């Protein structure tokens, strides 16, 4: 066989392999897009259906569909950005991502769902998250695994590198018909297994494993990481009057700001921050979680009126 014939055969085989790869990738993306369409439909039902049982049934189907979608090879690279009912946030180093969402209960409380997906470059590796919030007696002091998760819907991951690297999580945690919560949590990996909470938040004479804020449901609270300053900024919450000082469901922002400053791998509480030296008012609202039910209501309000 001549050298020219060998080169021709090699070129044909290479073209066949390339075609097979393109075909496989096309099939993979088609599957993921089909799953995404189903998740989008089910997610809308979870958020908007007024029937409690229908929401929960939709969530059951949502979980099954999501697991099947994530089992598709190298699904980590697929953003699922059409599924607005779920928060998907990647760690900046692309080591993992957290998918989290909530279902509203009949009494106006919330149950959270989620999973930590590891970037394997191929087959699925994930750790489902089980919301254990009602049973955690001291959540600010608790360090837990994925089976005793302090459920929240995350919108920001901040890496902290050091002898034992970890990541700070900022999340929204709807609470009851009267109050809402937000949380600063931490995730680390022991032998590749995720662990939540870490005693790295120092302030007011106490070290916390996570920081929890509670405030009146009808108000909004700023909780944001400012990378230029290595600081987590948040509204200072206060009671409307002296009689309500022990009722966090009445608390709201008082136009002052506090924060946690990163130093040597730990976070130190700082009072009365001057926001003019940290961020302007427009950037301060970036990357914050938006409740999909409230967003849906806003979207409906923008629709033209039918006559």
Descriptive overview:
The protein is of the alpha+beta class and 307 residues long. It has a domain of 66 residues. It has three helices and 15 strands. The longest helix is centred in the N-terminal third of the chain and has 46 residues. The chain starts with a helix and ends in a 5-residue tail after the last helix. The C terminus is likely disordered. Keywords: Signal.
Blueprint of the fold:
Elements lengths: L2 H46 L3 H20 L15 E4 L5 E9 L5 E9 L7 E5 L22 E8 L5 E9 L4 E12 L2 E4 L4 E3 L2 E3 L2 E6 L6 E4 L4 E8 L13 E12 L2 E5 L21 H11 L5
Parallel strand pairs: 9-15
Antiparallel strand pairs: 1-2, 2-3, 3-4, 5-6, 6-7, 7-8, 7-11, 9-10, 12-13, 13-14, 14-15
Helix pairs in contact: 1-2
User: What helical percentage do the residues reach?
Assistant: 25-40%
Total of DSSP H or I helical runs spanning 4+ residues: 3
Give me the Rg, rounded. Answer: 23 Å
Spell the H/E element sequence. HHEEEEEEEEEEEEEEEH
| Helix-strand makeup class | alpha+beta
Distance between the termini: 79 Å
Keywords: Signal
Signal peptide: 1-20
